[in-house]
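Please, structure for the following, as tokens.
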Amino acid sequence: MLRIVPTIVLIALASTACSSSEPVEGIDPPTPVTIQEVQDLIVGSPEPIVLNVWASWCTPCRSEAPLIGRAASQFDDEVAFVGLDVRDTPAGATAFIAEFFPDAPILHLADSSGQIPSELGGSRGVPLTLFYRPGGELSYLHFGVIDERTLALQIDELVNG
């Protein structure tokens, strides 16, 4: 029993640190979208798109977020970055955006059902990163945490391929 109490306290502290009951001031929550709206965005984009699927409660998403933010800033003139927050709360999402993407040029969208990634050919698991050529052709689909080398190679393929 004594071993369980510290574990419960640590879990409670960690979950409070990763969430907030209110959205963060100055940060807009992701825009709720349908699968059709996402597909229209992908198909209608004149530039390549990197679509990163994440959730504020996802520890692996938190580990790759700084890399995604840096890449969005670095390739802002060549590639559109879209973040799709799934199965999350507006407060959790805005806290995540404030922590990892406060100035990154990323369009933030929300899918409360978590079905959109599956409908795009991915899965319900997060993180997930999809790379689209202009006009909507899927170039590459990455399941799990993306590393810097893979992200750079796939962006290079979109820009120069």
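Helices lie at 4-17, 35-44, 59-74, 90-100, 116-119, 148-160. Confidence is low (pLDDT under 50) at residues 1-21.
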